[in-house]
Design a protein that fits this description.
Helices cover about 25% and strands about 25% of the residues. By secondary structure, the chain is α+β, with helices and mostly antiparallel strands.
């Protein structure tokens, strides 16, 4: 058995029957041809969006495909091809250092580039689908396929790669298009407020602000096990919001197309009195109610019990179902 403790940010002490890493498309295809990838199998990134509920009785695969290369560029934009094993925040830092705009609001999101394209990660008004042009994959038969961004079926924290029938499709590289022209997304959270502390608006300043905001709200997984935001923000019809506003006039929300709105799950959890509360060795973080934490020695079942209790409270108080963003294994 192979310990998965270093491969999940929740710090759940579980093991896998086998653990295989590969550093290239060729190496992955060879492993498949040799029959090393037996069923069941699980492909992981940085383990920042996983909750292991028990030992994994199968093969765990992990990409070590590195590299950031410029595929094409002109005066206005640059296209870069990035290995699935590159740490996401290292890629964002690289973009900022090179003066490429678009990824800075996604600073400090944990995980790896391959998983970013599966999960459609997002923060502060930006989703990774806004930057992706193509996703390169290999399937369990060893066949390569390139998906255009349109074929990826992106939606809020979702893509076709999350569907059960596509669990045997492994992302190897992701291609992104970034802008060389100065533009920012500053209207989410407290970004503009924080900007007032700086003499000028620059790409490194925006990245620093995003990192500072995230570090102030989110616990470091190395210190306290967590998977960042545990729940997705629910999307509801405008009529539902208006009905709730009768009772909760200060309820925050974000406008979406087609008359729908997104309500912050963290705000509702906080209103239910869960912020900072523990249930056994699992707790709701005291600074950000969207985050569930392992206080030490928690099992996957402890985290799920807390998640279920929080969801029941939100459902009872607001009549809204909130769903985990984290994948249970």
């Amino acid at each position: 058995m192979y310990s998965l403790l270093p491969y999940n940010t929740f710090g759940i002490d579980v093991s896998a029957n086998r653990f295989i890493e590969y550093a290239s498309v060729e190496e992955l295809k060879t492993l498949i041809e040799q029959g090393a990838v037996t069923t069941p199998f699980l492909h992981i990134g940085g383990g920042s969006n996983l909750l292991f509920t028990k030992d994994y009785e199968g093969v765990v695969l992990h990409s070590r495909i590195e590299g950031i290369e410029v595929a094409e560029e002109d005066e206005r934009s640059v296209s870069v091809r990035v290995g699935a094993g590159v740490v996401w925040d290292d890629f964002v830092a690289y973009c900022v250092e090179h003066g490429w705009y678009g990824a800075e609001n996604l600073s400090l999101i944990p995980g790896e580039v391959g998983a970013s394209a599966v999960q459609n990660i997002g923060a502060y008004g930006v989703e990774v689908k806004d930057l992706i042009t193509t996703v390169e994959t290999v399937n369990i038969q060893g066949r390569e396929r390139v998906y255009s961004v349109e074929e990826c079926g992106y939606a809020y924290r979702n893509s076709i790669f999350k569907r059960p029938e596509n669990k045997s499709v492994f992302v190897t590289h992701v291609c992104f298009r970034l802008s060389k022209e100065e533009h920012y997304m500053l209207d989410y959270g407290t970004i503009r407020q924080e900007l007032e502390k700086y003499p000028a608006l620059t790409l490194p300043v925006v990245r620093k602000i995003i990192i500072d905001i995230r570090e102030a709200k989110l616990p470091d997984p190395k210190v306290m096990g967590n998977a960042g935001s545990f729940f997705m923000n629910p999307i509801v019809p405008r009529e539902k919001l208006e009905a709730l506003q009768q009772e909760y006039p200060g309820m925050p929300y974000y406008e979406l197309p087609e008359g729908r709105v997104k309500i912050p799950a963290g705000w509702m959890i906080d209103q239910c009195g869960w912020k900072g509360k523990a249930l056994g060795p699992a707790a709701v973080h005291d600074k950000q109610a969207l985050v569930l934490v392992n206080c030490g020695g928690a099992k996957g079942s402890d985290i799920i019990a807390l998640s279920d209790a929080v969801r029941a409270s939100v459902r009872e108080k607001f009549g809204i179902d909130i769903h985990p963003e984290v994948n249970f294994v």
